[in-house]
Design goal:
Blueprint (H helix, E strand, L loop, with lengths): L1 E3 L12 E4 L7 H16 L4 E7 L2 H5 L12 H10 L4 E6 L2 H4 L3 H13 L3 E5 L12 H11 L2 E5 L1 H19 L3 H8 L4 E7 L13 E5 L10 E12 L5 H11 L8 E8 L10 E6 L9 E12 L7 H21 L2
Parallel strand pairs: 1-4, 2-3, 2-5, 3-4, 5-6
Antiparallel strand pairs: 7-8, 7-12, 8-11, 9-10, 9-12, 10-11
Helix pairs in contact: 1-7, 3-9, 5-6, 7-8
The chain binds flavin mononucleotide and adenosine-5'-diphosphate (ADP).
Adenosine-5'-diphosphate binds next to strand 8 and strand 11.
Length: 334
């Protein structure tokens, strides 16, 4: 998959079959749209093109509104779309100038001139252009004049997309990873930089890699203890998207046989300080210094809620039980 971020230097697409959307989560509902995109492209021997926006249009157009956490950061979205066999991903820098284009200008100077699409696939309720005044009918009218086809994404698929996104967010926020992973059709994951903690973990026999998530918009599941798989993916933070794209060959499929098993706590750790929310992972059968590296964590199962223990001995006993429980859950999948 080629990722294009510069609108001034797009390639010449061959019979482009194009769809437009944010695809946050690239979940089971999105995958149906992608199947439709691929089957239309196959019919006309065309290339599949997904146009997406970054940052999220909501952020630019409705500034000041309560931010909805995102399920996939841009590099993660790229990784997932790549794994689905899309030919081109075009990432539009969604700024005020782009959002101020009128609907007709958007069709002629953006969709037509940049892509010369064979087919555009959009939802019947898709709106575009300044004030969101362009719709399916306007696109069809221009399609006839300029010579491209417009195809509709069925209503039930669109409804599924909206319902799934909301359900996945709600499920993760209440720690229901079983439901979230089912709607996603893959295991929810995030990446964090391993930073210093209180250095207490090692003294009780459970060193924990404390994670700092780079993208503040990324949805972090609700507090609690989870069984996870994790991999050290690179040194330092994601610096730019291209580094992730070049990483792709080694990181697909998303959970590799090299994943380590472990357990993670998300919470305020009432037993030891009880204030700042932290994310920390204890990896099983592992003993390396990974400070300054990035850990990708796949959240497989929820184990329990966070508890305030009477002291470190009680916490330690519970961690031993959590480890057994995590291993039981993780091994049962194999
Ligand atoms: C799997 C797991 C479960 C945990 N559960 C709790 C808990 O229920 N309550 C709590 O106060 N801290 C809990 N902790 C956090 C520990 O208090 C923490 O790992 C320990 O204080 C070490 O901190 P440090 O990494 O900053 O040195 C848990 C940690 C892990 C890895
Ligand atoms: N099995 C392991 N799981 C997690 N981290 C480990 C493990 N073995 C070694 N480490 C290293 O030890 C650090 C965690 O030790 P810990 O005493 O909890 O310190 P801190 O409070 O700084 O996280 C990790 O950041 C990592 O570099």
């Amino acid at each position: 998959m080629l990722v294009h971020r510069d609108l001034a230097h797009l390639p010449h697409f061959r019979n482009a079959v194009v769809t437009i959307g944010t695809f946050d989560g690239v979940h089971a509902g999105h995958r149906k749209i992608i199947e439709q995109l691929k089957s239309e492209a196959e019919k006309v021997h065309g290339e599949t093109v997904i146009i997406t926006f970054h940052p999220h249009p909501r952020k630019v157009v409705r500034e000041g509104q309560l931010a909805v956490p995102i399920l996939t950061t841009l590099p993660e979205k790229i990784t997932l779309l790549q794994s689905l066999g899309i030919d081109h991903l075009v990432v539009i820098p969604f700024d005020a100038a782009f959002s101020n284009q009128g609907a007709e200008e958007y069709i002629q100077h953006f969709l037509w001139e940049k892509f010369h699409p064979h087919t555009v696939i959009i939802g019947y309720d898709h709106k575009f252009g300044k004030g969101r005044c362009g719709d399916y009918h306007l696109l069809e009218k221009y399609g006839k004049q300029l010579g491209f086809e417009v195809k509709e994404i069925p209503e039930h698929v669109l409804n599924e997309v909206i319902i799934s996104s909301t359900r996945i967010r709600e499920a993760l926020l209440k720690s229901d990873v079983a439901a979230a992973n089912k709607f996603l059709s893959y295991t929810y994951f995030f990446e964090g930089l391993v930073v210093m903690g209180n250095q207490l973990g090692r003294t009780i026999g459970y060193p924990t890699a404390n994670l700092e998530i780079a993208d503040k918009e990324k949805l972090i599941p609700g507090n609690g203890v989870y069984a996870v798989e994790a991999e050290v993916v690179r040194n330092g933070h994601v610096s730019d998207v291209s580094s992730v794209v070049s990483d792709l060959g080694t990181n697909l499929p998303l959970t590799t046989p090299h994943s380590l098993k472990g357990m993670m706590n998300i919470g305020v750790r009432p037993t030891v300080d009880g204030t700042k929310r932290t994310i920390e992972v204890n990896l099983f059968d592992f003993d390396k210094d990974i400070y300054g590296q990035t850990l990708r964590v796949f959240i497989k199962h929820y184990i329990r809620g966070e508890v305030k223990f009477s002291g470190l001995d009680a916490l330690k006993a519970q961690l031993a039980a959590d480890k057994q429980q995590a291993l039981k859950l993780l091994n049962s999948e194999e």
